[in-house]
Amino acid sequence: MYLILFGPPGAGKGTYAKMLSEWFNIPVIATGDMLRDAIDKETPLGKKVRNYVQNGKLVPDDLMERVVAQELDSDDADDGVIFDGFPRNVNQAEMLGQLLRNKNRKIELVIELNTDDEEIIRRLSNRRVCPKCGEIYNLKNHPPQNNNMCDVCGTEIVQREDDKPETIKYRLKVYREQTAPLLQYYRNQPVEYIQLNTSGQLDDGIQRLKQKLEEIDISSI
Ligand code: AMP
């Protein structure tokens, strides 16, 4: 199944993507993680996208198309993919449609995550990530057990450059102006569509998602 997780920064895309990947046994293509990895490794792509990512601006579509096309060419992507952070605008959605059509595949499910702005700002400013394994923490609700060390791999956790307050506000603006119009785009497409409120406790959100997935017949898509 080819599925898009959609929603503002801080709505929980990374967390839900990981969970859905285990449930459906399909990989995640998380474009933000891939770009951060390229930046850390100082690859040619990393050097091109660094300023965009650190300032919360969208990376140009032609670069993103190349990144995603390459991932989709991998054998791992043959049975389905969870897209986290892609597409980010209507042009990218059209590119993705075309890339999948070339492989006789299509987007079957879009899950829209939403949370109110106050909670987003609270979550993002408390978010810390492990730069090595990507585990996500929240200093208030889900801190690591041992000081600032990752529970999974023991590396010191860090704050993402773009989780600083001014950049958070800018990313929300970019989301509203460029990404939110995608909602209408997918509502006009023949895809299953789930809206999930991810405010409050994660466990409650997970239950709500399970129920919504049961309501649509996943086995038929
Ligand atoms: P994320 O981890 O999804 O919040 O993405 C972090 C940053 O990576 C974004 O603010 C953009 O600078 C860049 N980025 C990630 N995905 C895309 C995309 N599909 N198109 C353009 N820029 C992206």
- Beta-strand content bin: 5-15%
Shape: globular
Largest sheet: 5 strands, parallel
How many structurally independent domains? Answer: 2
Helix content: 40-55%
Helix/strand-derived category reads alpha/beta
Sequence stretches where pLDDT stays below 50 over 5 or more residues: none
What does this structure look like?
The chain has helices at about 15-25, 30-40, 45-55, 60-70, 90-100, 115-125, 165-180, 180-185, 200-215, and strands spanning about 1-5, 30, 80-85, 110-115, 125-130, 135-140, 190-195. The chain is α/β, with parallel strands linked by helices. The protein has two domains: about 1-115 and about 175-220, Rossmann fold (3-Layer(aba) Sandwich), CATH 3.40.50.300; about 115-160, no CATH class. The strands form two sheets. The protein has a five-stranded parallel β-sheet with strand order 2-3-1-4-7, sandwiched between helices. A two-stranded antiparallel ribbon has the order 5-6. Helix 6 (about 115-125) crosses helix 7. The protein is globular and about 45 Å long. The termini are close together. The mean pLDDT is about 95. It binds adenosine monophosphate. Adenosine monophosphate (AMP) binds near residues 9, 56, 59 and 92.
